[in-house]
Amino acid sequence: SLHHLVSFQKRQITDLQHERNQLKVLSEFQSLHGQSELKSLVTQMESARVERERKELLLKEAEKCRSIFVDKEEKLKEELECIRMELFMLNMQLETDSRESTSL
C-alpha cells in the first residue's frame, strides 16, 4: 500500500512536470507569436510612414509645378494683352495712314 501510494505520487509528479513543460512550451510559442505579430505591425507602420512621406513629397512637388504653371499662364495672359494692344495701335495707325493717303 505504501508502495502504491509512492508510485501514485511519482506518477502525479511526472504528470505535473509534463504539464508544466507543456505550459512552458505553449507560453514560449505564444510569446514568439506575439513578438512576430508585433514586428509585423511595426514593419507595416514603418512602411505606412515612408509611403506617407513619399506622398507628401509628391504633393509638394505637384504644388510647386502648379504654382510655376500658374505664373507662366499669368505671364502669357499679360503678353497676349500687350500683343492685342499693339495690334489695336497698328490698326489705328493703318486707319490714320489710310485716311491721310485718301485725303491727299
Provide mean pLDDT, rounded. 92
Count of alpha and pi helical runs: 1
The H/E string reads H
Beta-strand share of residues: under 5%
The poorly predicted ranges are: none
Radius of gyration, CA atoms, in whole angstroms: 44 Å
Q: What about the largest sheet?
A: none
Q: How far is it from the N-terminal to the C-terminal residue, by CA?
A: 152 Å
What portion of residues is helical? over 70%
**Helix-strand makeup class:** mainly alpha
Spatial shape: rod-shaped
Total strands: the figure is 0
Looking at how many chains there are and whether they match, the oligomeric state comes to single chain
Name the descriptors.
single chain; 104 residues; mainly alpha; 1 helix
Your description of this structure?
By secondary structure, this protein is mainly α. It contains 1 helix and no strands. The chain has one helix spanning 2-103. The longest helix is centred in the middle third of the chain and has 102 residues, at 2-103. The mean pLDDT is 92.
